[in-house]
Design brief:
Protein name: Alpha-crystallin A chain
Pfam families: HSP20
Strand order of the largest sheet: 1-2-7-6
Number of helices: 2
CATH architecture of one domain: Sandwich
GO molecular function: metal ion binding; structural constituent of eye lens; unfolded protein binding
Family: Belongs to the small heat shock protein (HSP20) family.
Largest sheet: 4 strands, antiparallel
CATH class of one domain: Mainly Beta
Oligomer: single chain
Order of helices and strands: HHEEEEEEE
Keywords: Acetylation, Chaperone, Cytoplasm, Eye lens protein, Metal-binding, Nucleus, Phosphoprotein, Zinc
Distance between the termini: 96 Å
């Protein structure tokens, strides 16, 4: 006789051995958040995170050194089935060539948090040309003459 739900002892043992695997296969408890998507291509680094159960006031996003930390928490509140509280922490290493001064974060109406930053181009392509302006100074140079 086959059961749709595994025995509790077997489920607990599988969760203790490998909680991430159980989560992916659907044998574990329902996840608070869907799996985040991280995209890092040549020009941009982006994290997409479904946080539909959180309002902007419940979320904090901060960058410390080479990491971005995303934290969501809302206190206990009543829903249709009783009381519920939620909290999560996510931490991601930023690529070394992300321009940390240009990072941005937004929350869509349907609860998708998007954290992104452009990448600094470390080497110029041979076909890429950039003009460097020459500024005129009013005082003489202090460089030694030849």
């Amino acid at each position: 006789m086959s059961s749709a739900c595994p025995r509790p002892a077997k489920l607990l043992a599988s969760l203790l051995r490998c909680p991430a695997k159980a989560k992916r296969t659907g044998n574990g408890p329902p996840s608070l958040l869907s799996e985040p998507r991280v995209r890092s291509d040549r020009d941009k680094f982006v994290i997409f995170l479904d946080v539909k159960h959180f309002s902007p006031e419940d979320l904090t996003v901060k960058v410390q050194d080479d990491f971005v930390e995303i934290h969501g928490k809302h206190n206990e509140r009543q829903d249709d089935h009783g009381y519920i509280s939620r909290e999560f922490h996510r931490r991601y290493r930023l690529p070394s060539n992300v321009d940390q001064s240009a990072l941005s974060c937004s929350l869509s109406a349907d609860g998708m948090l998007t954290f992104s930053g452009p990448k600094i181009q470390t080497g110029l392509d041979a076909t890429h040309e950039r003009a460097i302006p020459v500024a005129r100074e009013e005082k003489p140079s202090s460089a030694p003459s030849s």
